[in-house]
Amino acid sequence: MPTLYKTIGCICRKSLHVATKSQTKNSAYLQQIVENSHSDYNTEHGNHNDGSHCDNHIDVNSVKSSILDQALLHVAELGWSEQAIAAGAKGCGYSSSASGMFPRKGADLALHFYQSSNKSLFDSLQAEVQERALRDDDTPKPSVQAFIMDAVDRRIRMTAVYQSTWPQAMGLMTHPNAAGDAFTNLGQLVDDIWYLAGDKSHDMSWYAKRAELAFIYKTAELFMLQDKSEDFTETSKFIERRFEDLGVVVTTLSLSKDFTAGFLNGGMQSMWTIAKNMAGVYPR
Amino acid sequence: MLTLGYRNTLNPLKKRWLSQITFTDKEKAIIDRMIRVDHAGEFGANTIYQGQLAVLGKTPVAPVIEHMWEQEKEHLDIFNKLIPKYRVRPTALLPIWNVAGWVLGASTAMLGKEGAMACTVAVESVIGEHYNDQIRELVAINPDKYKELLEIITKCRDEELEHHDTGLEHDAEQAPFYKSLTEFIKVGCKGAIWIAERV
User: Fold this and answer.
1) Chain A neighbors of B92, CB-CB under 8 A
2) 3-class SS at A127?
3) What pLDDT does residue A59 have?
4) Chain A interface disruption, residue of B4, B15, B96, most A CBs within 10 A
5) What is the ipTM of this complex?
6) Could you read off the pLDDT of B1-58 as tens digits, one per residue?
7) How many CA atoms lie within 13 A of A102 on its CB side?
8) What is the phi-psi region of residue B79: left when phi exceeds 0, alpha when psi lies from -120 to 50, beta otherwise?
9) Which residues lie closer than 8 Å to A113 by C-beta, 6 or more apart?
10) What CATH code is carried by the domain that includes residue B168?
């Protein structure tokens, strides 16, 4: 704990001795202090985020994420657990009781991993897309299907590093207090991929595309868990087959309106069109 | 966090990600809500005029309605492009707005040309007010950052209010039960706006 105090102490030294009463209360309290001083800071200085005033200011989120990043190194032996977070905190030079900052324990760690993997996938794909845009036009662009397949494959490989312990993480993320965030993360992932693939949909196909891709991703993730092939070649083949099955749906950027309408509305729209035609009022 | 990269479209030889505007999560949430509801609104307006034309397509008032529909199509087109650009989720209730808008347009048109115009007056006055609220909100936050959105919303607002005036010019007030009819439609529109901002 002393090191943690030292780092956050510069923000509010006075209140710290109050905070030593109980372990969990303590960390929640520290967090509150940091967040309060954060908002004070913002109102004082307006929108200046240039960092020049921030020298003695520590962002609680960056402390948290550095602890969790360090904790990931211990997941292989300790699982997605409070122990792994404690080991991570120690690795960052904080007391192991800093793990109290994460009330959802292993689930917080798994969600952090999911989120940061999403971000690194997005960053690397975006860099490639931008680079391609800068280059001359004669280099061929990958097809939408190839682009998405590659993205799913890469993302699965990030998770595959934790193949043996991932089922535990999946279980933790279905827990009611984490399921919402886990769902948001999955949604973020498929939305990122479609956005970078150049999707311009603005109707119900928006939902159809994302639902299909989320389905493919989740099944590929399950397949990966039992894949014993070298370098996960079987998983890659599995992903390819899934895209072939669903080829028409996912590979075209402009889906026919009737198809998506049928897919999600259970034919509601087409029935409506038929009714209008029968009444003879459909505008030509 | 959302970063928009603008490519230089004026000079195709120099394809660059010229300027970048970054929005915080809070700002992104505001933009999301606005573009989603505006897109849904323009979509609904399109179906209303479509419904009106289905009934009044062969009457002398048809060209007036067609002109307004053309402008609505243009608006919808703009918001169709803004949805992917700002990465906004479109409203999940589009099929419902499709049917509801058409039924509203067709049923008021069955009361005659005045009924259709009364419907236009009611809808457009709510939409105009709604766009004004958005303009006020954006100006209060940061008018420079939301320049593009402000320009689009202002243009739409002006044209919607034009439709409102057109409706009044074409005897909207002669419609049967004008007062209660417009009040009823206004309440419905406000409810639809509330839902479309969220779902």
Assistant:
1) 207
2) helix
3) 82
4) B15
5) 0.79
6) 566 654 434 333 333 443 456 788 888 888 889 999 999 999 999 999 989 988 888 8
7) 31
8) alpha
9) A68, A72, A162, A169
10) 1.20.1260
Evaluate whether residue B46 is within a structural domain: yes
Q: Do B95 and A265 touch (CB under 8 A)?
A: yes
Tokens of A275: 């009714």
Asked if residue B148 belongs to a domain, the reply is yes
Tokens of B199: 């779902």
Residue B31 belongs to domain spanning: 25-197
The letter for the amino acid at A158 is M
Residue ranges of the alpha helices (H) in A23-105?
A: 23-45, 60-72, 75-78, 82-91
Domain boundaries, chain A: 9-36+60-102, 105-269
- The predicted model scores a pTM of 0.73
A118 CB-near residues (< 8 Å, 6+ apart): A155, A185, A188, A189, A192
Q: For chain B, what is the domain count?
A: 1
- Give residue-wise pLDDT tens across range A51-107: 334 345 678 888 888 999 999 999 888 989 989 999 999 988 888 888 888 888 889
